[in-house]
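Exercise 7. Predict the joint structure of the components listed below.
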Amino acid sequence: MKAESTPSRRRFLKDLGYISIGFSLFSSCLRTEDQIIAERIPYNGDLPGSLKREININAWIKILENGRVQVLSGKVELGQGIRTAIRQVAAEELDMNIENVDVLLAETGVTPNEGYTGASASIQNSAMSVRYAAATARIELLELASKKLGVTIEELQLYNGRVTQKGTNKVLTYSDILEGVQFEKEVAIPIQLKKKTDYRYVGKAIPRTDIEKMVKGEVTYIHDLRFPEMVHARVIRPAGYDSKLLQIDTSGLKEAVSGVLKTVVNGSFVAVITEREYQAVKAERFLKNNTKWSSATPLPESENQFEHIKKIANPPENIRNDGDFDNVTKSVKTIKSRYNKPYIMHGSMGPACGIAMYDGEILHIWSHSQGIYPLRDAIASMLNMEVEKIHIKSAPGAGCYGHSTADDAATDAALLAFEYPKKHIRVQWSRNDDQKWDPYGPAIITEFEASLDEKGKINSWKSDVWTDSHSTRPNKDTGTILAARYLEKPFHMKSRGYLAGGHRNADPYYNIPNMQLNAHYYEGPLRVSSLRSLGSFANIFAVESFMDELAEKAGKDPLNFRLEHTDDQRAIAVITKIQTLTESQTTIENEGIGYGFMRYKNTDAYAAVAAKVAINSDNGVVSVIKLWAAIDVGEVINLDGIINQIEGGMIQATSWTLKEQVTFNASEITSTDWNTYPILRYSEIPEVEVAIIDRPNEPVYGAGEVPMPPTSAAIANAVFKASGKRVYDLPIKTLTQNQN
Amino acid sequence: MPKYTLNINTSQKTVETEPDTPLLYVLRDYLELSGPKFGCGLSQCGACTVLIDGSSRTSCMLPVSNIGQAEITTLEGLENPSGKLHAVQEAIIKEQAAQCGYCLNGMVMAAVSLLNKNPNPDEREIKNALEMNLCRCGAHTRIIRAIKIAANTKD
Ligand code: FES
Ligand code: FES
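Solution:
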């Protein structure tokens, strides 16, 4: 073969030598003559926001010297399998064997700035940006090759890293074509996209490659990173949110704990650096006992939290007003209900960890933050540094499901890196701090008032939601990062973050002529931020419980009642599917089956969930026997990835629904470990079954948050079927304890 | 500082550390093993599980001075010398039984310990054996399936 004699080809082969994957690449190269290349169809639609911000192909796709394709994404891996999904779309558009595609995730200065990884938007934004960039790269390679070889594009074939002139043995590798430089072209419509029916990776259950590394105990997580002469640190956090350090006595510390390198006190930020990790644990304990803090503003007792919320809330803001609810309901009897959801926590299995090293010029940070660029802004402002002098590299943490404490651990490490320069400082949070200082998913009250017409259809519906903020993620507002609030010159959070997440899905996705939605924002006693599905979890629990109440009043079957209120075929499809999945089920005494439906954000994925529960007649304990889901996320990228997220999400939502509630008393948060904040254990795990409705020609929607909200409603409705008791308060715990 | 010679993954390892250092910190911080994880340090979550003489045990509250010559196996030690993984590890990969995977160490070690004692567990026995192991991502049902497969494919 001609190309093998060129220098880049030789380098290419040398690089292949040591990996078996390379050999299969080579043998498939020999077959490229026979490839039938899939048809391309011009795409003229919208480009995702991430792509608009970084419009050059080379921000997303690079060709490595060894011929491999490197894809860059600003999103981070949270266990949702984004890396695999991105590999799939890139390999697909470039007709590349998937083994020859690498994905590099979130690193400042290297990958695109894609803000935060959240809101189930990684597929919509990042994977779609990669799809369009890869498709544009393909055409660019063909065009450049056609100029080089002096033939038309039609005479060329691009397959698995090479462009061949059909019917000849003329072959160019991508490096030959690009001559060592990267793509210099912007992505613009029309984009020639591969015909979906010809996909070989997208839509399939492509296995993730990281699970093997995890199960062998290879270095995977930020917690596993080790650097030469790395030292360890712990922060001694204040007694309460607004406590101030009054006194610290470090005498005796070095005698009590060996390996202490430095104690750091900056305002009310107190930390200790040691040689070994467990020494930091012991030093933290010692200092805890030798510091005095001012007492914090008293918290309301958790039992009174909902009354407290109503008391402190702002006047309502009208969010939506279709028809005329106020007028229509003047003369008719309405039905009212109120539902409460307490604060719940992220509860990651691995407490936060951050590593930082200041080399005298650049501050390097390793973090499992979901938004390394916005975190960089916050840290730069805290330290009064130029952002270019801060380099943040993302490393996976344990699953976090929203904005947890990762950014705060990185902040701790960044502060300490200046106190102890030239060494890598590793800050490992304790379980207690991770739970006490978590930015929780806020408590929410959802109230409804509705009326039925003479045919038993809903004529009017009003939702009132009491909610705190649903994102206080790091950004230029420096007070978003925890430690910044406790420095000698403290930063206080100026903004309230993202409030609108609180009424997400509180206006039902049903055809109702008169519909009103009001939001009552409050600034509550606990630190809060984004937690998987934001307000939708509480709101859909409430909406879908209330739908069952209304169906009962109308004397209708719950699923048929829902079907009567929608003409959206995709909504009908998931509801009908869940009906089919459960129709052969029978229940005995104290068992029941219930349902929940949602279109996420009223604009995205469709989900219907069914739950079968049993109630122990002796102690009232509710157990979930089985959950079913019928899901439509539009175009499916990785089938098993979606199923996995839905299964896991339903189980997590079961835990939230049955068990979880952050507790506190006047002086402190008391949910500080797994005994005081119990989550679902194996003996309580339901069976799960997931059906995915693939719609290859519809836009893709994220799946991560989708199972959460309807699961809670399905369980609550099943409890009603089993016991005749309506659930108004989460968690359900036992039926005797808190239900009417 | 005292020295301890431990029997870890069939080799002798000596560390110099304080007597109260828990085994988990010896494994991760001194011996640079990444299998066992720090999850709570309170013996509540199972992330740090190792095998001690073939039985699973949390390592986060177990002082190094109490271990003596007990045989300690970590996740890394399950792979046999020819590089073959334990049937439980194989099955977890095959079933894609993880999301973030942080809990996997504990799940695998508890499952191996169970299969050592009971080669053919039923679902209830599997759940019992893993009751102390928490998973926040909800990978439980896949992990149970993987353990059943592993039980049936042991060679
Ligand atoms: S870390 Fe040992 S049980 Fe949680
Ligand atoms: S897979 Fe994430 S904790 Fe189990």
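Discussion. Chain A has three domains: 37-202, 223-236+244-294+347-436, 444-737.
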